[in-house]
Amino acid sequence: MLDSKSITKLITSLMPKLLLITTDDVLSATLSHLLSACDFSLIQVADLSDHSYQADLVIYAPQQATEADCKLFSTHPLQNTADWILLSDGLPNKCLDMMMTQGVAYHFRQMKDFTPLVEIVREFAEEFKHLKKQRKTATFTSTLDQYGSLLGSSAVMHKLYRLIRRVSQTDANVFLIGESGCGKEVAARTIHEQSERASEPMVSVNCAALAADLVESELFGHEKGAFTGAVNQHIGFFEQGGKGTLLLDEITEMPLALQSKLLRVLESGEFRRVGSDVVRQSQVRVIAATNREPEEAIESGFLREDLYFRLAHFPIKIPPLRHRDNDAIELARHFLAYRNKATNTGKVFADEVLDVFAQYSWPGNVRELKHCVERAHILAEDMITVAELPDFSNIQVTSESSVGPGTSIKEAEKSLIISTLNACQQNKTQAAKQLGITVKTLYNKLELYGQVEPPLQTRSESS
Under a CB-based contact definition with an 8 Å cutoff, are residues 102 and 74 in contact? Predict the structure, then answer.
């Protein structure tokens, strides 16, 4: 039988954890007292270099944030898995501003009344309770947690669920950023389904698939006879969306001339069909998505900076599969369970297959994994072995140690660029700065190495 001390320890271990990072003993004592009733287990460390603890929520209150602190934050193990709140003295600080662009939720300056902070912490506690209750009541044919149409049990996915839950209750424009196949459209659909617009239409548009000379007509519609071939009136995507949601996928592939017209619609809510003088009002909520880093897209001439800031009321980064802990294996089991049910079979994975799944980087993310499982399910008899998997051996990883005597300048350059990209976790803006080149030059180099998708036509060619 458990004694009272053991029961208290058990209850504390089940509570969400709040990590306080500060050297201010007065602030620490104040927050410990105020947050004691917020259903968090409170832990304190002195600085960002201490990675001893896991946490669901982090309050960071530096005396004076430096560039070193900013670097420690960008590599902190909780940076992508926990929610962060900043407390500061209110003095302008570029490092704190940079942290706000890298996922920090709130920044409170010169706090004299701590009531807003306590209310926010309580809101976080309620969200954690909501997700925990949802995990207990949901029924799956797999072990994966689910929020809306999104699947995943890793910490980065639970942080994504919390972000989507918050933004779905607003009408703010959302900008989804993530690699191809990581689930941007699924995230957009979840935002729509969890919002008050769920009963209205959701229209998804792949901007990269639209012909350059027809983009305006597709988005805003056209009248009969507006141009050669316009034999009928056409209702554009903005009208089709009504009071629902419009997803503009791969927004960075839209011609810049059309981006300026889109900006005017977002600012005024007004548009005209091609060939019409009638001003129409749009009530649709816009969600934009891209597989490019926005800063890189702006610098390379694929995205207008003013359009980005108009769209990015609430930017959300969708994590790639390789950053989702054990989700790859659990997703594979999930997809297999559904294929077994659909085909009335009982196929299983061999252990070595799961080892391959765990070690592979999945550049095509969830889409690649799903297609891999479906293909293997078709080929296998009863047990899925490595013989039924695609050939992953052609994926080469260039290491820094590959440069030595006999290595050509061209190969040495390639090795340096690839290793720098890996060290920067594929952040091309950061890698370009470290290499001392522009992002556009980096893209040109990667194209030569076959490490990036072929570039689109130039704007002059596509207009």
Answer: yes
20 φ, ψ (degrees, to nearest 5): -105, 120
> Amino acid identity of 315?
P
Shared-domain flag, residues 193 and 68? no
Residues 211 and 301 in one domain: yes
Number of domains composing the chain: 4
Contact by Cβ (8 Å): 39, 125:
yes
Give the range of the structural domain holding residue 381, as residue numbers without chain letter: 322-394
Q: How many CB atoms lie within 10 A of CB 196?
A: 12
Distance CA(11)–CA(450), nearest Å, equals 53
The CATH number given to whatever domain includes residue 58 is: 3.40.50.280
Cα gap 70→102, rounded to integer Å: 10
pLDDT tens, position by position, 151-178: 998 889 988 998 998 899 899 999 999 9
- Would you state the torsion angle of the CA atoms of residues 226, 231, 233, 234, taken in this order, to the nearest 10 degrees? -90
Short-list 287, 99, 284, 253, CA closest to 176 = 287
CA 223 vs. chain centroid, Å, equals: 38
Name the pairing type of β-strands 83-88 and 106-109: parallel
Please, are residues 51 and 43 in contact by the beta-carbon 8 Å criterion?
Answer: no
Tokens 């053991």 correspond to 6
**pLDDT for 15-66, tens place per residue?**
788 999 999 988 888 888 888 778 788 889 999 999 888 888 999 999 888 8
Q: Token pair for residue 18?
A: 């709040």
Q: Do residues 298 and 310 lie in contact, with contact meaning Cβ atoms separated by under 8 Å?
A: no
- Cα–Cα distance measured from residue 238 to residue 284, given in angstroms and rounded to the nearest whole number: 7
- Which CATH number covers residue 376? 1.10.8.60
Q: Examine the domain organization and report whether 263 and 378 are in the same domain.
A: no
pLDDT band at 460 (very low <50, low <70, confident <90, very high): very low
Query: Could you tell me the pTM of the whole model?
Result: 0.64
Q: For residues 72 and 192, state if they share a domain.
A: no
